[in-house]
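Worked example 2:
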Amino acid sequence: PTVFLDRLENTVKSFIKDGRGVIVIDSLNQLFISLDPSMGLSFIKGLKRLCRKYSLTTVVTMHTNIPGFEQIESLINYMVDGVVVFDYDPAFEQVGLPLRRLRILKMRNTGHSISWVPYRITAKGLELVDTKALLDVVRKMTGKTG
């Protein structure tokens, strides 16, 4: 991980100006499949130091619910500044509507709600979904009231 972090820092130095930039890594799963877990965690610590040094925002994905990754996931959640979970609402999935939702589990140094936020992606971007209105539509479609 040290060699990769050194290369990443050299890239950051040549592209980032005025502490503005984003590093996106998709996904950590491949890293942990390829490396010993302690090396993967060492990489994450180094990435965190690098981003603080250059005032960068980092977005890293990790696909969860993979057997054997539970302890690594817990350690990563402890180490990072923020954790956002994305999935589908199971209640709407049962009726055939794959409604996306997100929840901010952790965001250091800022207030946030941990409630699920339903959304959809449209040509205009991300839009919040009014689940009560959507439920009314489902009820009308199925002939159920209440």
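The beta strands are 22-26, 57-61, 82-88, 100-107, 117-122, 125-128. The two ends are 56 Å apart (CA to CA).
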